[in-house]
Amino acid sequence: MSRAGERIATDRPAPAHSAVDAPTALAIEISNLKKSYGLKPVLRNIQLALPQGQRMALLGANGAGKTTLLRILAGLSKAGSGTVCLNGLDSRYELQEIRQQIGFVAHQPYLYEELTVLENLLFFGQLYGVKQARERANALLQRVGMERRAKERIRVLSRGQVQRVAWARALLHSPQILLLDEPDTGLDQDGNDLVAALLAEHSARGGSMLFTTHNLERALAWSDQLVILASGRVVYQHDAATLSLEELQQRYREVVK
Ligand SMILES: Nc1ncnc2c1ncn2[C@@H]1O[C@H](COP(=O)(O)OP(=O)(O)OP(=O)(O)O)[C@@H](O)[C@H]1O
């Protein structure tokens, strides 16, 4: 298997924010990452590298370790050993700076149930030091189709609506890196179209992203690199541009048991 950095397509335009003298700057760099729960190893010696401006899809069966990996990247869980760097910042020492640079959308929305939609966004806006937070929040609510629910409490919204607000929360501080745990779960067709559009906009701004999904077709369509985890190991890695859906399905069947 090739290492990530060797397989990157070169025809993709350089991200707008990349420094001229740092063409190989990495959005995500994971080295020798291990994590156990009790005696049970959940991540085993993970090595991954994602150049800035690129998108990585993380695939694998239930329990393969995808959420655990994302939570470590988001600073919500500690690595057992090894190192994790985001945009060159080491998660052991620079977690606050890293948090400013990532947007996380997960199974849990990380919203306050008793606050309204807008109150939630204003709270997180303050936390992240977002300038003109009210204008930014209103613009994002419009973007995710939730502007009419701005004054409603989170607890009265449907799961898909909460997910849309979670997207607005994640994008509020214009993060350079999106970490998305099954962003396509629980959404209707409109919701999935919205997610695809938000991902495309993030990429067009030069942003990077790592997302998990169980949908191989979307993994291929939305990514530059595909990674399959099995029992906490990277068992497959390939450029999306040179892989067909049939090949991916075949390889997935072979490596995921
Ligand atoms: N807090 C925890 N305590 C103990 N074990 C845990 C904990 N969180 C996860 N695990 C275990 O770690 C393993 C990996 O879980 P993880 O949620 O990372 O898998 P996943 O690939 O995201 O699965 P899914 O596709 O079902 O979301 C599982 O065996 C799970 O039981």
Give the SSE map.
Elements lengths: L25 E12 L2 E12 L3 E5 L6 H8 L7 E6 L2 E2 L4 H7 E4 L11 H11 L5 H11 L15 H13 L5 E5 L7 H16 L3 E5 L3 H7 L2 E6 L2 E7 L5 H11 L2
Condensed summary:
With 257 residues, the chain is α/β, with parallel strands linked by helices. It is 33% helix and 25% strand. The relative contact order is 0.18.
Folded structure, characterized:
With 257 residues, the chain is α/β, with parallel strands linked by helices. It has a domain of 142 residues: P-loop containing nucleotide triphosphate hydrolases (Rossmann fold, 3-Layer(aba) Sandwich). 33% of the residues lie in helices and 25% in strands. It contains eight helices and ten strands. The strands form two sheets. Strands 6-7-8-3-9-10 form a six-stranded mixed β-sheet, sandwiched between helices. A four-stranded antiparallel β-sheet has the order 2-1-4-5, covered by helices on one side. A hairpin with a 2-residue loop joins strand 1 and strand 2. Helix 3 packs across helix 4 and helix 4 crosses helix 5. The longest helix has 16 residues. It is globular and about 50 Å long. The two termini are 19 Å apart. The relative contact order is 0.18. The N terminus is likely disordered. The site of adenosine-5'-triphosphate has 10 residues, from helix 1.
